[in-house]
């Protein structure tokens, strides 16, 4: 079955007739379809779903909808450089950094750091991620309140960001060194 036309999927996610409930259902179906299914991931990206999913990460969406959108984007970014580029170009980085804050759930922190670790492999994104304020938030996630897998992913994002010399200075200034040492 071919993917739905672009405008239909975009309208379903963001169209004027889409209620929050319809958006959650659409994002939930995309979440299920994208999970560990490369063919569906390609079809979702080809259908133009990335920009509307990025938009759903914003403050106008419920936390449940943000998590669903982040989950789909996480799967789309995992192994596809084109999707990683499209996600960053659609403006996801600033929203993802906002979602690293204390008001987000641990699931959201996991999705946001998971997407950021893939995006941070690109040198241009390293600067953008740091400029969006990710470093202090990632250092906070290294704290004792975070679960070990989240600490590992946050450390992984910082590792990629540290490939940039200016970011190294910001990482050290944000207090990452003692927190990283404490994880050894």
Structure write-up:
The structure is a single chain. This protein has 184 residues and is an all-alpha fold. The chain is 72% helix and 0% strand. The protein contains 13 helices and no strands. α8 packs parallel to α11 (148-161) and α10 (134-141) packs antiparallel against α11. The longest helix is centred in the N-terminal third of the chain and has 15 residues, at 20-34.
The overall strand count is 0
Strand content: under 5%
The geometry reads as: globular
> In terms of structural class, how would the helical and strand content be classed?
mainly alpha
Order of helices and strands: HHHHHHHHHHHHH
The average pLDDT score comes to: 91
Span from first to last CA? Answer: 49 Å
Helix share bin: over 70%
The major sheet is characterized as:
none
Gyration radius, rounded: 16 Å
* Low-pLDDT residue intervals, each spanning 5 or more residues: none
Count of helix runs? 13
